[in-house]
Write a structure and sequence with these properties.
About 40% of the residues lie in helices and about 25% in strands. The protein is an alpha/beta fold and about 250 residues long. Strands 6-7-8-3-9-10 form a 6-stranded mixed beta sheet, with helices on both faces. A 4-stranded antiparallel beta sheet has the order 2-1-4-5, with helices on one face. The protein binds adenosine-5'-triphosphate (ATP). Adenosine-5'-triphosphate binds near residues 39, 41, 42 and 44. One of its GO terms (biological process) is L-valine import across plasma membrane.
Length: about 250
Amino acid sequence: MAAALEIAGLSLRFGGLTALNALDLALKPGEAIGLIGPNGSGKTSLFNVLTGHHAPDAGSVRLDGNETAGLPPPRIAALGVARTFQNLRLLRRLSVYENLRAARHARAPWREALWQTPAARRREQDAMISLLALFGLASKTHEMPEALTLVEMRQLEIARVLAAAPKLVLLDEPAAGMTPAETDRIIRAIAEHLLPGRSAIVIEHKVQLVTALCPRIAVLDAGRKIADGPAAAVLGQGEVRRSYFGAASC
Ligand SMILES: Nc1ncnc2c1ncn2[C@@H]1O[C@H](COP(=O)(O)OP(=O)(O)OP(=O)(O)O)[C@@H](O)[C@H]1O
C-alpha cells in the first residue's frame, strides 16, 4: 500500500543545534502513530516542518506522493495537513463558531468564502453547528474562547482540525493539563470523531493516551528515531525506557 506520509532523511538545524537528524518515518493511509521522546528531542520541530513553519535543511516529506518540504504553511494546509498546538492557539477575538469557520476556510478556496450563496452559507452553518455538538460545544457557539474550560478549549481545537477536513492530523499533547477523567473524554472524542479515515501523528507524554489511540509508536531522542513499532513492544524496550522514562523506571 502506498504511504500516506513518507518522511525521508529529514534534518533540521538551528545554528549548531540539530533538532532533527536524518529522520525516516512512513505512515500508511488511516494509520495513527504516537510520537514520544524526552523534552527537546525534536517532536514539535517535526510538526513544524510538516506544516511548513520550518523549512528542513535536508530530506523530503511526501504527502500522498507530493513533496511538501519547504512549501509555505497555507499551501500545506490546502493539501490537507491540520494540527493542534501544545499551547492552544485559538483565535481569541473570535467566537467559538467563528473559530471553527476560520479553520474551515483555511483549507477551502478563498473564493468559496467570499462568494457563498445564502444556501451554501446555511449549509456551512448547519455543518459547523453539528460539529460543535459532536464535541459538546453546541451551547457555547457564541461564547468567546476565554469563557471555555481547558477541556472545552481543547475540544474546540480538535473540532477546528476536523472542520479543515484534513488527510493528515498532527496532535501536539492534546491532553496537556488534564485530569485522568478529562483525558478519557478527550481520548473518546479523538478516537470517535477525528481519527477514523485519517492518518495521524500524536505527540503525548501521557502513555494512557498514546496507547489508547495509537497501535504504533515511534520514539525520538536528540532528533533521531531510536525505536518504531507496535506500542507494547516499543514501550518495553530498555533504550526507550531509559531515554523516555528515566533510569529510575528501568
Ligand atoms: N525556533 C527555534 N530556535 C532555536 N532552537 C529551537 C527552536 N525550536 C526548537 N529548538 C530546539 O530544538 C530542539 C528540539 O525542540 P522541540 O521543541 O522540537 O522538542 P520537543 O521534543 O517538542 O520538546 P518538548 O517535549 O519539550 O515540547 C530543542 O533543543 C529546542 O531547544
